[in-house]
Amino acid sequence: MKPVTAAALFAGLLALTLAAYAPVFHAGFVWDDDAWLTGNPAIADPGGLHTLWTSVPRMQYYPLTFTSFWIEYRLWGLEPLGYHLVNVFLHACNAFLLGLVLRTLKIPGAFWAAALFAVHPVHVESVAWVTERKNVLSGLFFLGSALAYLEFAATKRRGLYAAALALFACALLAKTAAATLPLALAIVIAWRRWPPAAREFAPLAPFFALAAILGSITVALEKGMVGIVGSDFGFDTSQRLLIACRALLFYPYKLLVPYPLIFNYPRFDVESTSPAALWPLVAMMLAVIGLILLWRRGGRGIASGVLVYAVTIFPALGFFDVYAFRFSFVADHFQYLASIGILVLIPAAGLWLLDRIGERWKSAARALGAAGIAGLALLTWNQAGAYRDEATLWRDTLRKNPDSWIAHHNLATLRSRSGDLPGAIAEFDEALRCKPMSAESFTGRGYAYGKEGRIDKALGDLDRAIELDPTFPQAYLNRGELLLAAGRFEDAIADLDRFLANNPGYAIAYRNRAMARMQLGQARGALDDLSSAIQLDPKSAELYTRRGAVQLRLGRSDAALQDFDAAIRLDPKLAATYLLRGGLYKRLDGNSVRACADWQQACNLGDCRMHETECKR
Q1: What is the DSSP string of 396-456?
Q2: Calpha distance 82→94 (Å, rounded)
């Protein structure tokens, strides 16, 4: 391929991808983007790279993905446009690399398949969702490694082999779903020469070793997250087999019929014991028999494409517990790379058919292919609009899946945070209709009731949440806050103790426990709690102000003054700090000069109690 031709092909794919994904350039952040990016302290920390590569991760050990976020944070902070642009650009690069890989394999319609990959709407979840940077970044190195390995297989150049192995390592460090690459390459080797010699597979051994090492880390971390909500994963072997068979059939169907696409699909019912429930297993057995016959009768190309799809989607079939399975057993982003095995067959089959019906139909076939690409791009454009913000995404989900528990629950949480408490409670009601035993939804509704002042209802919901899941920490935190407001200080401390035993990094819990301890006269314990809170949140003026008040209670005037000064430096608009420091000045000076200056400032900020009583006599 000439460089100019390659450049033109890439430019065309990039333009096509940019047009299809135009709505995301006005999009913000959505679900999980806070955990992966906007609320991840290692991303904002200038020294965070060390943490990202060496410490126990917040979510998964995908340090290369987090590093990309860390670099971008230095470039454009938390401006969403930058992150969306990078995702779209990476996806266009992946489409181009796919075209190069297919051309290297001499597969007909290579760049038609690349265009299909670029605009197929099933990939919107991977491209428009910033959190799924791991998919598009891993895909870049996955396809780059495949291309380098295929060139090595043809030329035996060691540099290409080293590049392929290094790129594969990068793919795994972006997302370990790339671990299936050596299996896909083994299938390609068998397709190109059957039966293959054993020595042809030998160079893949280091690839398998890398995949096993990093894949085991991912499985261990997923088990840790799954352990928190283990009741959602209690499936026996037969149920897991049914889940896998249904998923194997679901994904190709969505590639061929990409509407509706739902952020949260209905969860498969695997409890039914009727014979009709076994149809996915029967269909899969027939498919396996058909593939064997196809391979034996010379249809190795089609069989290989299906096998590449199957091995690439395998990690998401339910044999390994994945945290997202508590919401649904399938998701569009699971098949980002696996879709290649099926999409490749579509233009190849079209060109095979065209060769048999004659030259005169080629122009019409090209026009039909272009219309198909345009239609898919339009569907992608429409689906990308759902990612404008989190509320829009959940409303789009509920329009297509009204029984989505996670959509109702998260929409309720958004409404609760915005102050729409009646709307939040109504959504939590819907969430509990969909999942009546949800400790999370009882906790959320209890919190909303508490904010409305309906303490009895709030405590009832939180008690129910803890009854359903005695290990759920948020219920203890929320109930502790309510008990504090209700004056039940010892009970509040007991709940906050339970929360902090497993969540020692939460400043608000230490603050609330300090408030309860102060009410019980436990000033020294309150001081320790506020010091712990300040270590976790050193930029909170409120925490310094509260600790200064405790220092005053303990007679530590100098320490109190230092805390009040620190609070004012952090937030010069907090009236309570000036009130308290003014009182300390009054005690230290024996007159009201400095005290009245602080009380005047407090009055300017809306609290004139001390100014009017002490300074206007």
Answers
A1: HHHHH-TT-HHHHHHHHHHHHHHT-HHHHHHHHHHHHHH-TT-HHHHHHHHHHHHHTT-HH
A2: 18
Using CA atoms, how far apart are residues 572 and 602, in angstroms rounded to an integer? 10
Residue 382: predicted pLDDT: 96
According to DSSP, residue 274 is labeled S
Ramachandran area for residue 360 (φ above 0: left; ψ -120 to 50: alpha; else beta):
alpha
CB 462 within 8 A of CB 478: yes
**452, two tokens:** 């409305």
Our CA angle for 540, 543, 547, nearest 5°, is: 145
Q: Is 223 helix (H, G, I), strand (E, B) or coil?
A: helix
Q: What pTM did the predictor assign? A: 0.88
Give the mean pLDDT per block of 10 residues along the chain (617 residues): 72 96 96 92 91 77 95 96 98 97 93 96 98 97 97 93 97 95 95 88 94 87 57 75 92 94 91 75 90 88 93 88 84 96 91 74 81 96 96 97 97 95 97 96 96 93 94 93 93 95 90 96 95 93 95 93 94 92 86 85 85 71
CB of 173 closer than 8 Å to CB of 150: no
CB 36 within 8 A of CB 59: yes
Identity of the amino acid at 381: W
197: left (phi over 0), alpha (psi -120 to 50) or beta: beta
> What are the residues whose beta carbons fall under 8 Å from the beta carbon of 123, sequence distance 6 or more?
91, 117, 332, 336, 339, 380
Instruction: Indicate the DSSP class of residue 591.
Output: S
CA angle in degrees (0–180, nearest 5) for 567-568-573: 115
533, two tokens: 């809170």
Name the 3-class secondary structure at 120.
Answer: coil
Task: Pull the structure tokens for residue 544.
Answer: 């310094």
Tell me the domain boundaries of the chain: 3-243+343-387
* Residue 509 near residue 541, CB atoms below 8 Å: no
Measured N-to-C along each axis, helices 362-384 and 3-20 cross at an angle, to the nearest 10 degrees, of 50
One-letter-per-residue 3-state SS of 444-457: HHHHHHHHCCCHHH
> In the chain, pLDDT over 70 holds for what percent of residues?
95
Q: Of the candidates 117, 164, 177, which has an alpha carbon nearest to the alpha carbon of residue 377?
A: 117
